[in-house]
Amino acid sequence: MLFILFMLWRILFSCWLSPIRAYRKLQTNGFAGPPPTFPLGNSSEMRKKKNTDSSSGSLNSIHDIHSSVFPYFAQWNKSHGKVFIYWLGTEPFLYIAEPEFLKQMSSGIMGKSWGKPTVFKHDRKPMFGNGLIMVEGDDWVRHRHVITPAFSPANLKAMANLMVDSTTKMLDQWNRVIASGNTEIDVEREITSTAAEIIAKTSFGLNYENGRKVFEKLSTMQVTLFRSNRFVGVPFSKFMYPKQTLKARKLGKEIDHLLLSIITSRKASLADHPQQDLLGILLAGNHGDLRQGKKLTNGELVDECKTFFFGGHETTALALTWTLLLLAMHPDWQAHLREEIKEVIGDKPLDATMLGRLKKMEWVMNEVLRLYPPAPNVQRQAREDIRVGDLIIPSGTNMWIDVVGMHHDPALWGKDVNEFKPERFKDDIHGGCKHKMGFLPFGFGGRMCVGRNLTMMEYKIVLTLILTRFSFSLSPNYCHSPAIVLSLRLTHGLPLILQPL
């Protein structure tokens, strides 16, 4: 009887008393927002808004995507401003789309001092485990210390040839398809598959078969976790969708088992055949004493492999896919980039040292990441009270930073905010944004994406090779419907009409 009472008290405390206490604390400190209902919070309103405001596929104001991918936030912005509280189930979140507030909030806080919302850590455990995205505190410092050397300029340069080989194989296949009489290709599927092959080879030394297995299982898990109509943050919601919960766990265990076997095999051959890829460097730098907290466990190594396999291919693939969409709509920019490639590279073999001189390509990449950021939001959790002006963000507060909202804010970017204008980055790395924290393509502060240089190098290599071999235009079959499936994705692929040059 005492045990039953204890469990009832724990449920009451975690699902009602603790959230109410957190909510009142935020209200006392000056924050307001849409009123929640127990136990769904604002989740039902968010789901309803998402269903009624989904994209129609119209090409009018095509890049004005905030109101279609985050319709509830766009609506609440009008009534509650750019900083307010909303609820996922019984979890209150502080929504932030105000760069000055974000700057003051993050000033002086080190990367290790940020937490991750517990509700997301539990929800996304099969996908990321305790990898760098989710880990915090001294564990984050330890993980980051082991991982960072993998992205040194020398190691990145060594990966370039493998990127060229995989991309060339994809483009040769496109030529064969076109030669057979079919000029329309869904490049989204092709780019995603090739990016996965590149990360498998360059970061983990995996052959095609093992890389494909990991990629397919991670992709299936992504759909299982993020395309389902689950109520994240609602107490016991995992029991409402047992099929999806069990499927995600099963996939997580299968991926863990596959990666652990790869790690074990590489450990055995480390002395005789050291490799300077991400996995090789993780293993080579992992000789500390586990008891002293300097070494990654096998489980942590597996989680880092999952994190980087997913993040390493997803961000680059999406940036390239959105770029091909925008260049198909703006053939003048295809011509600008081809001219620059001719000036910088000419007829010489593509070399990683040349990539830094492709400045117009950097403008295009930044503009694509502004209009269609693959990482559409950033989540944090306060590990101490944070003062922002006269307001206090209490320790333990969940935070949701709306990257899409800031990237599409006319108050920051001007009236042409929803236009594709790469030249805005010509003389300003922030693209003329009125606040430098308004442009966050790779996150902010000490927890910025550690693999951003790898992404930029792969982006330039793949795009250079595509532009030198093909011109392309948008297929009449394309339907514009951006959607959030953890990342900002194209719902219906990207069919392009390709013409060999």
TrEMBL record:
SUPFAM superfamilies the UniProt entry points to: Cytochrome P450 (SSF48264)
Residues spanning the signal sequence:
1-22
Question: Where this protein primarily resides, as one coarse class?
Answer: membrane
**Which one Pfam family would you cite for this protein?**
p450
InterPro entries according to UniProt:
Cyt_P450, Cyt_P450_CS, Cyt_P450_E_grp-I, Cyt_P450_sf, Cytochrome_P450_Monooxygen
Q: Where is this region: Disordered?
A: 34-57
Q: Which GO terms describe its cellular component?
A: membrane
- Positions bound to heme: 449
Q: Name one GO molecular function term.
A: heme binding
Per UniProt, subcellular location reads as: Membrane
Key words, A-Z: Heme, Iron, Membrane, Metal-binding, Monooxygenase, Oxidoreductase, Signal, Transmembrane, Transmembrane helix
Which cofactor names does the annotation list? heme
Family indicated by similarity: Belongs to the cytochrome P450 family.
Q: What is this protein called?
A: Cytochrome P450
* Naturally occurring in which organism (per UniProt): Tetracentron sinense
What does the record give as the organism's lineage? Eukaryota, Viridiplantae, Streptophyta, Embryophyta, Tracheophyta
